[in-house]
Amino acid sequence: MFKSIQKLVTAATEQELPLSEVIINQEIQSSGQSREQIFNRMKKNLATMKAAVERGTSGQGVHSATGLTGGQAVKIKAYRKNHRTLAGDAMMAAVEGAIATNEVNAAMGVICATPTAGSSGTLPGILFALRDRLNLTEEQMVRFLFTAGGMGMIIANKASIAGASGGCQAEVGSASAMGAAAAVEVAGGTPQQSAHALAIAMSNLLGLVCDPLAGLVEVPCVNRNATGAGNALIAADLALAGCTSVVPADEVIEAMDKIGRQMPVELRETGLGGLADTPTGQQIKLKIFGKELES
Amino acid sequence: MSENYRSVFDIIGPIMIGPSSSHTAGAVAIGRVARQVLGQVPRRAIVNYYESFAQTHQGHGTDYAIAAGLLEMDPADPMVPTSREIAARTGMVIDFKEQVGPSPIGHPNTAILELIGDDRVVQVAGCSVGGGVIEVRQLVLDGMVVQPSGPLPIVIYQASVADQTSQKRGQLLVNDLEWKAPFIQQQRLVSPTSTIWVFDLKNYLRDEMRQYLVDNYPGVICLEEG
Predict the structure, then answer these.
(1) Which residues of B touch A62 (CB under 8 A)?
(2) How far apart are CA B150 and CA B4, in angstroms?
(3) Is residue A27 assigned to a domain?
(4) Distance between CA atoms of A222 and A75, rounded to whole angstroms?
(5) Would the ipTM clear 0.95, i.e. be above it?
(6) What residues does B119 pair with on adjacent strands?
(7) Which of A220, B20, B106, B130 has the fewest CB atoms nearer than 10 Å to its CB?
(8) What are phi and psi of A241, to 5 degrees?
(9) Does residue B148 sit at the A interface (CB-CB below 8 Å)?
């Protein structure tokens, strides 16, 4: 098991293999399963992600039981069709996929956690936008997920991917960093460029708190996945352009871990601080649960 | 640096019903392992929540997730959100309690389950560390407290004092695992009625190894990630 991004990048560079191949080989070795078995398992995850995006962007879209979220993805879809978007179509395609997935999640639909359910829109948002932008094959999309997953394993073991431990930087921040690294690979970048993209994407979301209204995975979670997806594309483009992160990826992950530990409990998935503690946030909590939650 | 995450599929996955991997999918996993430890249908369950779980269990669907786990449901089962009604129909009584103060096992996403079966009572203290992955940090079996290091897999084997064959098997299991599925830690507890072995394994169990354990050590419990 790789203990650092640098060790993974060095292994890939020395073996002259893409990151995804090194990660696939590691998974074959540790699980005792065949390449075909683990590929098929990842294809199933990919199909789940695709189905969630389709569900969120079809018809009237999906709406959560509370009515707090839903229907945004279909608005974005129509907007992309009828307007010249400011950010460009690839960016808005990523945003649409990200929001669609998290709307399905908030409505208690089926999603694939990547790395978590709260951040489950970020990776599919990036992936399906790149599928259309770069004409990715299924094999390339599966490889994207292995690269993202391998990077995510290192982040999760070195720091955390739980909002209750590290805030939203650990969830959407990690998802965005994983996606940026994987995007670089499918676009033809080097393993070292993937590491830079990861570092840049995570650096840009450091300090992001987890402050869900009424403790629900709805507001601001859904829109934050849009930001995670967009941020990943920016970071990947920066790395592909030859821009680098001054602080190496492993140190950025360590900083994320430390920041999480310094974060007050109100801002770590308790629904007590930040946006949850605004007058609107409190009003919504009262309306939904009818009483102050016992604490 | 932890080693909670040992597969790419811990990160890309699980496939699950929303809304939260730690508070929903992870909670299903805590319910499922608690039921495995009890080894029978719980008649009654008391679920004690701490910290983030205490604050957000309602918004995150943690109650139905724990109930789904106690019913041995998969986290992707569309029936997960209705599990509390299913449990009630089957006569399973579940109480949820929001506990004040820090988690006794030191994690913000903590649920401590007391399960009462027909002839057995156990306590399982689990925490959901992110992305659906869980740890079991304390177990109370036969009145004995055992503290595994946390990450799964954890292998438990219990042999009644009167049953010489099982007692011998327990000894054999130690040697067997050393060779075939190395462990980080081994604990052996002795009560007036039984001996219990608890092993924290280094690696995820391969399918053939799990089958081997089940075939050769009847009653062995393998707590694993879903």
Answers:
(1) none
(2) 9
(3) yes
(4) 14
(5) yes
(6) none
(7) B106
(8) -80, -5
(9) no
SS3 A248: coil
Q: How far is CA A184 from CA A118, A165, A247, A278, in A?
A: 24, 29, 18, 39
Instruction: Check which CATH number belongs to the domain holding A97 and give it.
Output: 1.10.4100
Closest residue in B to A51 (Cα) is: B15
Instruction: Output the CA torsion sign for A216, B152, B202, B107.
Output: positive
Helix (H) / strand (E) element for A11: namely helix A5-15
CB contact under 8 A, A112 and B12: yes
Token digits of residue B48: 């004690």
Closest CB to B15: pick one of A45, A118, A178: A45
Domain hosting A211: range is 5-289
Predicted TM-score (pTM) of the model is 0.95
8 Å CB contact of B52 and A268: yes
CATH of domain B7-141: 3.30.1330.90
Q: What pLDDT shows up at residue A293?
A: 43
pLDDT digits (tens, 9 = 90+) for A20-61: 999 999 999 999 999 999 999 999 999 999 999 999 999 999
Establish if B58 touches chain A: CB-CB under 8 angstroms: yes
Residue boundaries of the structural domains of chain B: 7-141, 152-226
* Chain B residues near residue A271 by CB distance under 8 angstroms: 55-56, 59
Instruction: Report which DSSP code applies to A214.
Output: G
Which of chain B's residues have a Cβ under 8 Å away from the Cβ of A158?
A: 1
What's the pLDDT tens digit per position in A120-169?
999 999 999 999 999 999 999 999 999 999 999 999 999 999 999 999 99
Task: CATH number for B152-226: choose from 3.30.70, 3.30.160, 3.40.50, 3.20.20.
Answer: 3.30.70
Identify the closest residue of chain B to A27 by CA–CA distance.
B7
Our CA-based measurement puts residue A179 at a distance from the nearest CA of chain B, in whole angstroms, of 11
Cα A132 to Cα A90: distance, rounded to the nearest angstrom = 8
Contact criterion met (CB below 8 Å) for A115 and A171: yes
The partner residue sitting opposite B130, judged by closest CB among A108, A165, A271, is A165
